[in-house]
Fold:
Amino acid sequence: MINEMILTAGPSITEKEISYVTDAVTNGWNNDWNKYLVKFEKSLAEYVDVKHSLSTSSCTGALHLSMLACGIGPGDEVIVPEITWVASASAVAYVGATPVFCDIDPVSWCMDIESAARLIGPKTKAIMPVHLYGHPANMPAIMKLARDNNLKVIEDAAPSIGAEIDGKKTGSFGDAAGFSFQGAKILSTGEGGMFVTNNDEIFQRVKSLNDHGRDPSRPLASVEVGYKYKMSNLQAAMGLAQMERVEELVDRKREINAIYQDLLSDCGAVQVTSELDGCKSIHWMSSVELLGFDYDKRQQFMNKLKENLVDSRPVFSPLSSLPMFHRTIENPVADRIGQSAINLPSGHNLTLEQQEHVAKVIKSLL
Ligand SMILES: Cc1ncc(COP(=O)(O)O)c(C=O)c1O
Structure:
């Protein structure tokens, strides 16, 4: 019997998280101030298979530092997919560069390569693929496009820890990448992020920039204006506990998606997110396209879901429709998905009964 709102997200907290955070708050000071930070960074770098990692206060901060360390600045253009959280494009704007928006693939909802290629011009300095809702963007093709055109690649890997293409993890393809551990993410530290790279020079630059531009050889001496996007040891304690359970957390998200696919397989009016060949999506947010819907119809549908105790979130609108950005080319797939798709309840603690209720309500409303 469903008598409470079924929420879209929710973390998975066990005794492990509680005991690590309790240890950090009790003992993680003075000489042990960074014990969990070091372990969390190391364990994520090993898992993603990258050389360097640096914890940050958010993925947005990690992306901002990536832009700076990759030398992106005023007058430059960075290609970003239309459908993503605004943070991707904001990081570009922070350094005075301009995000130019390409279309998305109709299955993965990630960057469409041909559309991205059309946007490359003399001002283009970088490409920012986004692994949207945990599906990997087509990184082999994006890396080829970037290398052929001498462009940097900064992966917005925010919601994608554990996602893979042919066994290689997101975050390990580009020049730099950022992950998010904000409260609703698959792996959470409350708020938080992680910068990763295989490039020694970029890493050293990010480390210094994230430490107020300090000269590592001279204590407390800044040599330029820097930033401070740091994570605390307390958050890292939670992050380490979640990292040690990452496979379980990924498997559970994939299971939730498989159940939705099964429950909604006989409903021709919706298309549940799936994955492209060779890709492993972690399905951070299981989502559906409501075929033929526009903004108004979607909003009415979401209101009705809520009346039936099913919470949902609209898929991001095309970023070029926001007042601070503008459109360069037509992006028809993004326009369609941006007004007709929603995220379904996808929290780790969702029960089968709740998923059956969600599917039943969707079918009865359509
Ligand atoms: C695609 C994408 N990029 C960036 C972010 C920003 O992450 P954070 O909130 O950690 O800055 C998010 C968070 O939801 C996201 O989904």
Notes: Residues 58-60, 84-85, 87-88, 130, 156, 158-159, 180, 182, 193 surround pyridoxal-5'-phosphate (CB under 6 Å). The chain has two domains: 15-243, 246-365. The first strand starts at residue 52 and ends at 56. The mean pLDDT is 97.
